[in-house]
């Protein structure tokens, strides 16, 4: 438990407690509250722990919560499955699916020839390699053709999906489900930070995104969604309204192959053509 990120864990508890309303957990709303969300004693009662113990957790003065306590707190805070996994990583300081110490240091951002070959073999399905900082490290021709009209590649430096979605005004124009995409990017960075807390480039990316209010709000809320698999809709400037199913594979520790399945459920309909033909 020595690896626990006390500030992150404490921030998560406080932020999620503030977002819960009494009626969401079966409590009367009562008089108007001076601060939003549930009182500390209410969450403690729901989780079956003492108020003093919850205070110590929120203040970073206790770094050894048991798995039973974590489960009870997760139930009390009404966390979804992705948030439970993240909550466990914050508390235990390791990934429950992998084990071991959280990794530090800078990311390995060179894409191997084998991974590039996988991208090329996926053509005509758009696919790209995403780094831990949301930086796009490589892509295939199909993804380039799909992303260029969206102005994803219109940058002099590295291509970063976080900076594109939060900093480029056209993103809200083309991405019909922009809030969903924004949640995906924030959740991905939140998960990366819990695993690579000592990465200075990751910290710099998160800091730079703080100048965008929509990112800052999401970051402070500590909400998590399944950023590895999702469906979003776009009003593509060339292809019109399209549905994109996102699926993520991880060939390396800090690199992911992200596949965009475009209008997959329509390609078998008579009269329709594959978008990449």
UniProtKB/TrEMBL annotation:
<dbReference type="InterPro" id="IPR001387">
    <property type="entry name" value="Cro/C1-type_HTH"/>
</dbReference>
<dbReference type="Pfam" id="PF13560">
    <property type="entry name" value="HTH_31"/>
</dbReference>
<dbReference type="Pfam" id="PF17765">
    <property type="entry name" value="MLTR_LBD"/>
</dbReference>
<dbReference type="InterPro" id="IPR041413">
    <property type="entry name" value="MLTR_LBD"/>
</dbReference>
<feature type="domain" description="HTH cro/C1-type">
    <location>
        <begin position="37"/>
        <end position="84"/>
    </location>
</feature>
<dbReference type="GO" id="GO:0003677">
    <property type="term" value="F:DNA binding"/>
</dbReference>
<dbReference type="InterPro" id="IPR010982">
    <property type="entry name" value="Lambda_DNA-bd_dom_sf"/>
</dbReference>
<protein>
    <recommendedName>
        <fullName>HTH cro/C1-type domain-containing protein</fullName>
    </recommendedName>
</protein>
């Amino acid at each position: 438990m020595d690896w626990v990120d006390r500030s992150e864990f404490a921030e998560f508890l406080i932020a999620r407690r503030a977002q819960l309303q009494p009626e969401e957990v079966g409590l009367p709303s009562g008089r108007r509250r001076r601060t939003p969300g549930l009182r500390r004693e209410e969450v403690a009662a729901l989780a079956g722990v003492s108020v003093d113990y919850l205070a110590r957790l929120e203040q970073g003065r206790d770094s050894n919560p048991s798995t039973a306590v974590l489960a009870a707190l997760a139930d009390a805070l009404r966390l979804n499955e992705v948030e439970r996994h993240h909550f466990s990583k914050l508390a235990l300081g390791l990934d429950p699916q992998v084990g071991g110490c959280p990794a530090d240091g800078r990311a390995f951002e060179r894409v191997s020839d084998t991974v590039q070959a996988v991208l090329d073999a996926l053509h005509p399905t758009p696919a790209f390699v995403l780094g831990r900082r949301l930086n796009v490290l490589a892509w295939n021709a199909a993804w380039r053709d799909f992303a260029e009209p969206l102005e994803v590649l219109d940058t002099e430096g590295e291509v970063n999906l976080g900076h594109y979605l939060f900093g480029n005004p056209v993103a809200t124009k083309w991405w019909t489900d922009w809030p969903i995409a924004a949640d995906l990017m924030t959740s991905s960075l939140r998960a990366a930070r819990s695993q690579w807390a000592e990465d200075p480039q990751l910290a710099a990316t998160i800091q730079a995104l703080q100048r965008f209010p929509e990112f800052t709000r999401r970051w402070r809320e500590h909400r998590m969604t399944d950023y590895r698999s999702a469906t979003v809709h776009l009003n593509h400037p060339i292809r019109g309204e399209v549905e994109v199913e996102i699926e993520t594979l991880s060939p390396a520790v800090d690199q992911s192959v992200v596949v965009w399945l475009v209008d997959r459920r329509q390609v078998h309909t008579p009269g329709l053509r594959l978008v990449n033909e």
